[in-house]
Amino acid sequence: MTEILPNSGDVRAARERVVNWLDAHRNELASQLMSFVAVPCVTGDEGAVQDAVARVMRDSGWAVDRWEATREEIAPYVLHVGEQERYAGRPNLVAKVLGSGGGRSLMLQGHVDTVSAGDPATWTRNPLGERAGDRIYGRGAVDMKGGIVSMLAARRALQETGIDILGDVLLAATVGEEDGGLGALSTILRGYRADGVIITEPTNRALVIAQGGSLVFRVTVPGKAAHGAARNEGESALEHFVPIFQDLLAWERERNATLSHPLYDHLENKFPISVGLVRAGNWASTVPESLVAEGRLGFLPGESIEEMQRQTEARVAAVASRDPWLREHPPLVEWFGGQFASAEVVADHPLVRTLASAHETTAGTPVTISGVTYGADMRLFTDIGDMPTVMYGGGDVRVAHAADEYIDLDDVVSAAETLAVAICAWCGCDASPSA
Ligand SMILES: [Zn+2]
After folding, report:
1. What is the tens place of the pLDDT at every residue in 78-108?
2. Which three-class secondary structure state does DSSP give residue 269?
3. The dihedral formed by the CA atoms of 398, 339, 199 and 3, expressed in degrees to the nearest 10
4. pTM for this structure?
5. What is the CATH number of domain 213-335?
């Protein structure tokens, strides 16, 4: 279909009605957010909050698909989302809002799970929700129940102001994002597809088109035990690990100096390689007979999991080949835990253009296009679902996971406005009075 610009007549008319609707429903949206924040929903325990989200979906007149991921369906993808302790009682929701036909489809997605509120004594506000003027505090307020309120409000505003949307809109509220993305993956495996996906994570209304990847590795270095008094009879696994560690740091420096990505070049360290755990030996006066080091390696959009694994293994093997002991007793490199792919949508993709101009129309200033270094569900939609995916939402991720997490109602409402305009422009719309 031909591209509908966000400044076309119908979209302009739709936006005006959406703004009025959002204005009139501000307090209702605030209570809705409060009702979501009031239900504890740490990853793994998302059932109760989904009851609240499903209620809002049904009250809007939408049919709701509610299902739980199973161990069997996830098994082939377990490296992508990590092992799960349990699957039961963790429902995902999709409300499918059918369009009148002929337009592109769009999925709006958010995760309902949160990290723990931590020690309540570190909070000055109620972690289960407290409103102070236009600011709503509570665990999950910004990450990302505010985003879920925004996306539901966007579609509902269009519906309740008589704007006819041509394409289908899928509204997905999923579980397990903080722990690898179980719900997003299950949504894809259930067959949900759209011509574009917007994840309403708190990006401060920047348009995120790229996400870095990360791998967790384990290096096991063999040694040979001996009494510390005769240490030359042994082979210290610790001493043999040191050159491997130094080479990883040298590789990090080389990569920073030679590789480049426009969205990441401003970072001090684009490719952090961090060893977070080292365990060696078993007695103070014994030469350590083995060492295990575990760490995380970050990489850029455009680089693949397989390529990064291959290069890491080659670096370690090269160090080993220069050491007589390690040549005969090669260190073992293993990959465990979540292996998170990077993700990227080209900057001139129609989805990026549509959302960028929807933002500009509502905010009055050009959108900031950016990339992030942390993991999120984006990679699952691009890699496994093969759908162009971006992230855009209100609120500041820097207050997420912290005490006194909050989001301002203005951010919820402005994001909803942009999303509504984007739905109109992407899916096509008719704002004529007869519609
Ligand atoms: Zn999040």
Report:
1. 888 888 889 999 999 999 999 999 999 999 9
2. coil
3. 130
4. 0.89
5. 3.30.70.360
> Comparing C-alpha atoms, which of 352, 435, 426 is closest to residue 2?
426
Q: Does residue 1 carry a pLDDT above 50?
A: no
How many angstroms separate the CA atoms of 33 and 261, rounded?
A: 37
Residue 111 CA to ligand 1 center (angstroms) comes to: 7
Query: In angstroms, what is the span from residue 202 Cα to ligand 1's centroid?
Result: 7
Which residue of the set 113, 143, 289, 294 is catalytic?
113
Spatial separation of the C-alpha atoms in residues 267 and 264, rounded to whole Å:
6
Question: CATH 3.40.630.10 spans which residues of the chain?
Answer: 9-211+342-430
Residue 32 is predicted with a pLDDT of 98
C-alpha 105 – ligand 1 centre gap (Å): 23
**Residue 316 alpha carbon to ligand 1 centre in Å:** 34
Domain with CATH 3.30.70.360 in the chain: 213-335
Query: From CA 428, how far away is CA 100, in angstroms rounded?
Result: 10
Q: Is the pLDDT of residue 349 over 70?
A: yes
Q: Is a pLDDT exceeding 70 seen at residue 7? A: no
Do residues 93 and 50 lie in contact, with contact meaning Cβ atoms separated by under 8 Å?
Answer: yes
Cα-based distances in Å from 125 to 129, 197, 291, 409 = 8, 34, 45, 17
Ligand 1 centroid to residue 406 C-alpha, Å? 13
Written as six digits, the tokens of 196 are 């574009």
Mean pLDDT of 298-322: 95
Q: Is the dihedral of CA 142, 398, 24, 164 positive or negative?
A: negative
Annotation marks residue 113 as catalytic: yes
Angle between helices 409-427 and 9-24 (to 10 degrees): 150
The Cα 70–Cα 74 span in angstroms is: 6
Q: Which CATH architecture has domain 9-211+342-430?
A: 3-Layer(aba) Sandwich (3.40)
**Predicted pLDDT at 31:** 97
* pLDDT band (50, 70, 90) for residue 5: low
- Distance (angstroms) between ligand 1 centre and the Cα of 347 equals 23
Selected catalytic residue, list 177, 179, 252, 289 = 177
Nearest to 199 by CA among 248, 145, 147: 147
Looking at residue 3, the DSSP 8-state letter turns out to be P
From the CA of 147, how far away is ligand 1's center (Å)?
9
E strand segments, 78-190: 91-97, 106-111, 130-132, 135-137, 164-165, 169-174
405 Cα–ligand 1 center, Å = 12
Nearest by Cα to 417 from 29, 147, 15, 149? 15
